[in-house]
Amino acid sequence: MNSANPEPNDDQHPPRIPIPRTSIEDTGLPLPTQTPTSPPPPPLILEHRVLKALLGAWALAASSPEETAAVEDHLGDCGACADEALRLREAVGLLHPPETLDLDPALRTRVLQACLTRRPPRIPVPSWATPYDAETARLDALLQDIGDAEWHAPVRLRWFDGKEPTSRRTTVAGVIAHLLTVDGLVAVTLGLEDPLETRTDTPTPAARTEAFWRAAHFPPTRSVRGPWREQSHNLVRTVAFAGGGSGRLPVPYGDFELPLRDSMLDRAFETWVHAGDIADAVDYPYEPPSPRHLHAMIDLGARMLPSALAARRQAGLAAPGETPHLVPAGTPGRSLRLEIEGLGGGEWLIPLDSPGALASPDREVAHVALDGVEFCQLAAGHVSPEEAAAGQSGDREAIRDVLFAAASLSRM
């Protein structure tokens, strides 16, 4: 403190720091009477439809205190609204993630699957074409998510050539070119444009694919997605307008043919299998088809087993059946019970002696049990007959022949 400026006289100036206020409790005076508070408002009584409509605002914490109390009281009594409230709260959590904006990679697949199974199409698609519609849409969603460089990721196409596993190396773009070319067999049957400009002497799926790859000046790139996508849409739209009766049209595969209804299932199956090949190559999560569609694919495979078994027997790759004149067409013969467990499950009786023989439970000589997805992987040539985890009982030779026949259904 500067001595030239002495402290002011306390008698002339108020203190610089005010003294503490005296509390009324310390004065001995009576306390003031308190104004009585108003009673709390009565709880809101709202109808169920109003409370359900408030769930969105409640999940966003945008409802009034009275509405919040009414909603929360209601959630304790209504299970349906409680489930909906939980889903809404989880959705709000996605809008405000604590760390990252990246969604669960499987979310797109789940949402797409829900849309495909719940949203009715404007133009009804025949039931035998809906698996193809669903699988091409799922594959298209996968292709939408991958980057430019991933279109050149290596992919190995695998199948069983009748005696042993075989494979062919290509890329993601090459797989889509393969699907485009083989789907072209169905397109030609329906009067649509054939994507293969170069004709082949043997119009099998493998020959058409090799011809398409050879005709390209450069390896396929992501540009192949556009033609494949457009052709897929045209196929679904054409069969939708043509109606269910078109399902009997024969579709030639070079060395065999299928009716259109089975051919569309075959194309759905191959689309799913090769989508899985692509997903493995780019490390993308991919789920099996819906159980209903998977069941239809398994049913097609089971129905094709007798012909595949007969072809292997003719080539000397399977044990001979009973004497043909003893098992004429339409006559009950030896049978194998194929039991499929899990997704798409069911049971099928497979005639063993000839494609025309009737499967008979009275003449069942063997029983095989397989998981649904594993049966499809066997039929796709992705699992060898020796490695298939099958529950087996009965005639071992018949079981072996049927498992090898299932693998022989595969092709490039």
UniProtKB/TrEMBL annotation:
Record-annotated Mycothiol-dependent maleylpyruvate isomerase metal-binding domain positions: 133-279
Keyword Transcription regulation among record annotations: yes
Amino acid composition bias (Low complexity), ranges on this chain: 27-36
UniProt keywords, alphabetically: Transcription, Transcription regulation
Pfam assignment, any one: MDMPI_N
GO molecular function: metal ion binding
Highest taxon of source: Bacteria
Positions of region (Disordered): 1-40
Entries under InterPro entries matching the protein: Anti_sigma_zinc_sf, DinB/YfiT-like, MDMPI_metal-binding
Name of protein: MDMPI N domain containing protein
Provenance organism: Streptomyces dioscori
